[in-house]
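Appendix C: a fully annotated inverse folding record. The material below is reproduced so that readers can follow the format used throughout the book. The structure is listed first as C-alpha cells, followed by the designed sequence.
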C-alpha cells in the first residue's frame, strides 16, 4: 500500500466538513463533530502539509494555524514527539495563550519583521526538526500506523 493511503482514508471523508478558513469558532465547532481519530489525522495532515510547503512561518501565517493546538496533540498521539515538541515551542512565540485568529498571528509576525528584518522567521530551528522527522515518508508511516491501530 502506498504511504499515506490509510491515514488519508480517515481524513478524506471530513475534508469538506471541517473548515480552517472561516475562523476559530467555526473550526472548533466543526472539528468537535468528527471522530477523535479524524480530528488528529486532519490536524496533523494540515500542519505537515504547510510545513513541508513553506515552514512553520507559513503554517502560522495562513488559516491553517487555527489548528496548531490540535496538531501538537496529534503529533504526540501518532508518535512524532519531536514534531509535537517543536510545534509547541514555536507556538510560544505568540505568548502564553495561542491566538487562533489568523490576523493576530500575522500582526505579531509582521511586527517582528519590522523590528528585526534579518531575523523575520523565528521558526527555522523548529522547521529543521520537522524536516528531519518527515524524511523517508516519516509522517506518512506514523500516520498510517496510527490509523491502523484505530481500525
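Designed amino acids, in order:
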Amino acid at each position: 500500500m502506498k504511504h499515506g493511503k490509510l491515514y488519508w482514508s480517515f481524513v478524506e471523508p471530513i475534508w469538506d466538513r471541517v473548515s480552517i478558513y472561516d475562523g476559530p469558532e467555526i473550526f472548533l465547532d466543526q472539528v468537535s463533530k468528527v471522530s477523535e481519530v479524524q480530528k488528529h489525522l486532519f490536524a496533523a495532515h494540515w500542519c505537515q502539509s504547510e510545513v513541508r510547503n513553506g515552514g512553520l512561518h507559513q503554517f502560522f501565517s495562513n488559516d491553517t494555524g487555527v489548528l496548531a493546538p490540535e496538531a501538537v496533540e496529534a503529533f504526540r498521539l501518532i508518535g512524532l514527539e519531536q514534531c509535537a515538541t517543536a510545534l509547541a515551542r514555536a507556538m510560544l512565540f505568540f505568548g502564553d495563550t495561542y491566538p487562533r485568529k489568523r490576523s493576530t498571528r500575522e500582526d505579531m509576525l509582521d511586527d517582528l519583521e519590522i523590528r528585526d528584518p534579518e531575523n523575520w522567521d523565528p521558526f527555522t530551528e523548529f522547521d529543521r526538526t520537522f524536516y528531519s522527522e518527515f524524511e523517508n515518508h516519516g509522517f506518512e508511516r506514523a500516520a498510517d500506523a496510527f490509523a491502523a491501530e484505530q481500525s
